[in-house]
């Protein structure tokens, strides 16, 4: 890929991002979003986060899903989820999950 193609892709992606993010700001007063859509949009950040995190927890480096006990990321994610359900504190969950994952990696001898 030539340098000008890379810069063109960067420019087009920046333009697309600017257009999509500013569209609500530019036409926000003229369009009313239905209540049902507003309720659904409340869950968009959680869905986006799940779409980013889930493949990292499930897939191995070669792209194959690993759903057994040897997948330390998945085990840590499940334990962190249980911790969150018990404590309801996101910062503690992140710290606990990372500490648990680090401990598993240090203990793992394979």
Give a written overview of the molecule.
- With 110 residues, this protein is mostly helical.
- It has two domains: 1-31; 34-107, no CATH class.
- The chain contains five helices and no strands.
- The longest helix is centred in the first third of the chain and has 25 residues, at 3-27.
Rg calc: 20 Å
Strand content: under 5%
- Mean of residue pLDDT values: 90
Tally of individual helices: 5
Total number of β-strand segments? 0
Classify the secondary structure makeup into a structural class. mainly alpha
What is the CA-CA span between the terminal residues?
Answer: 40 Å
State the helical fraction. Answer: over 70%
- Please state the overall shape, judged from the principal axes of the Cα atoms: flat
Describe the main β-sheet briefly: none
**Total tally of structural domains:** 2
List strands and helices in order, with pairings.
Blueprint: H1 3-27, H2 35-41, H3 44-58, H4 72-87, H5 90-107
Helix pairs in contact: 4-5
In short:
This protein folds into two domains: 1-31; 34-107, no CATH class. It contains five helices and no strands. By secondary structure, the protein is mostly helical.
Keywords:
110 residues; mainly alpha; flat
């Amino acid at each position: 890929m030539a340098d000008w193609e890379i810069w063109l892709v960067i420019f087009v992606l920046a333009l697309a991002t600017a257009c999509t993010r500013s569209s609500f700001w530019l036409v926000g007063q003229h369009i009313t979003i239905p209540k049902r859509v507003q309720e659904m949009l409340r869950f968009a950040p959680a869905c986006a986060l799940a779409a980013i995190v889930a493949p990292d927890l499930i897939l191995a480096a070669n792209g194959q899903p690993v759903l057994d006990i040897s997948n330390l990321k998945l085990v840590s994610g499940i334990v962190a989820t249980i911790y969150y359900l018990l404590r309801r504190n996101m910062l503690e969950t992140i710290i606990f999950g990372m500490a648990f994952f680090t401990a598993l990696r240090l203990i793992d001898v394979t």
